[in-house]
Amino acid sequence: MMDELQIDSGFSMLTLLLAPFRVLINFIFGAVATAIIGVLIILIGVPKLLLPIPAVQRGLSTVANALFRVWGYAMSMMFRLTQPMHWHIDGDAELHRDRWYMILCNHRSWVDILVLMHLASRNMPMPRFFLKQQLFWAPIIGLGCWTLDMPFMKRYSREQIARKPHLKGRDIATTQQKCAKFRHIPTTVINFCEGTRFTPEKHQRKKSPFQHLLPPKAGGTAFTLQTMGDQFDAILDITIVYPSSKRPAVWLLLSGQLRDIYVNVETLPMRDDLIGDYFNDEAFKDRFQRWLNQRWKRKDEVIEKLTSRADNPPQQ
Predict the structure, then answer these.
(1) At what angle do helices 54-81 and 2-50 cross, to 10 degrees?
(2) Angle at 33 between CA 27 and CA 38, to 5 degrees
(3) I need a labelling partner for 274 at 20 to 30 A (CA). Which of 97, 231, 260, 267 fits?
(4) Tens digits of per-residue pLDDT, 252-271?
(5) Residue 304 located in a structural domain
C-alpha cells in the first residue's frame, strides 16, 4: 500500500511539473490553428463582400463553412494533444450534418464551446452563435464570424427606445434578415440559456431554485425560435459536466489534466407552440417560461446524475 501511495504521489508531482509545458503546447496549438484558419476564412470574406451575387455568396459561404469545420477538428484535437481523454456521451440523438438544430446548453466553462465544437465536427452542422456587437472588432475572430454569417446583436435599451421610438423592433428585424442566410446552409444555433457561466457566487446571488444551474433567461431562446423556428428540425438539450475540481476546466484542459468529459444529449421535437412573440404576447411569454423552467429542472437532475458518475468513477 505504501508503495502504491508513493507511486501515486510521484505521478502527481510529475504531472504538476509537466503542466507548464502542456499549457504552452496547447495554447500555441490553439492560437496558431485559430490564426491560420481564421485568416483563410477572412480571405474568403473579401470576394464575398465585393461580389453581392447570391449564388456566388452561397458558394463562398460553403467553402468558409468547410474551413470552420477544419477549425472544429483542430479544437477537438486539443482534447487529446497532451492528455488521454475519455468521452462519456449518453443520449438518444441521431444527428445529421445536413439538418438544422438549436442547442440548449448549460454553461460551466469556456471549454463548453470546444466540447460543442468536438460534437459538431463529428456529426452535426457547424454551430453559430448570436454575438454581441462589440465582438465584431475582436482581431481575426470578429471578421471570421462575420464571414460565417454569425449575427451580431445590437440590443437597444428601454431608455434608447424611449428617446428614439423608431428603434423598437429593429434588432429583431436585423437579426431575422441575417438568419435568412442560414436557410441555404445546415446550421446549429447554440443558446447558453443561463446567459453567463455558472459559479457558486452567481448561484447564491441570483437565488437560483436549481441545485447546479443558474435560472434560464427565456428571452434569448424565445427570440431564436421566433427568428428561425420554422427552419429547425429538432432542439438538442445538451448537458455538460466535468469532474469536480478547485481549478477551472480551462486550466485543466490546457495543463493536460482534464481526463473525462460527461455529456448528455436529448433530442426534442420542434413544436409550433414554442414559436411566438415573447416580448409582446404575455400569455405566450408565461407558457414559454414554464416550458423552459421544466427543461431546466430536468437538466438539473441530469447534472446530479452525471456529477455522481464523474466524482465516483468505476474502479478499473
Answers:
(1) 170
(2) 125
(3) 97
(4) 999 888 989 999 999 999 99
(5) yes
Q: Which domain holds residue 197?
A: 2-311
Helix, strand and coil in the chain, % to nearest 5: 60, 15, 30
Is there a domain that residue 316 lies in?
Answer: no
Residue 31 lies in a domain: yes
Report the run of H or E that residue 18 belongs to, with start and end: helix 2-50
DSSP, res 215: P
- Residue 162 DSSP symbol: H
Stretch 174-180: mean pLDDT, rounded?
Answer: 68
Residue for grid cell 433567461 = 217
Residue 289 pLDDT level (bands cut at 50, 70, 90): very high
Strand arrangement, sheet containing 127-128: 86-91, 260-269, 234-241, 101-105, 188-192, 127-128
Give the CATH number, domain containing residue 107. 3.40.1130
Number of structural domains found in the chain: 1
Contact 254, 304 (CB under 8 A): no
Burial class (CB within 10 angstroms; exposed 0-12, middle 13-18, buried 19+) of 215: middle
Yes or no: say if 110 and 99 are a contact pair by the CB < 8 Å rule: no
Sequence-distant (6+) residues with CB within 8 A of 208 are: 214, 215
The residue assigned the cell 490546457 is 254
Distances from the Cα of 266 to the Cα of 36, 146, 201, 235, angstroms? 35, 30, 29, 8
Are 188 and 119 within 8 A, CB to CB?
no
Mean pLDDT of 307-311: 87
Neighbours of 230 (CB within 10 A): 12
> DSSP character for 126?
P
Q: Which amino acid, one-letter code, is at 19?
A: A
DSSP strand pairing (86-91 vs 260-269):
parallel
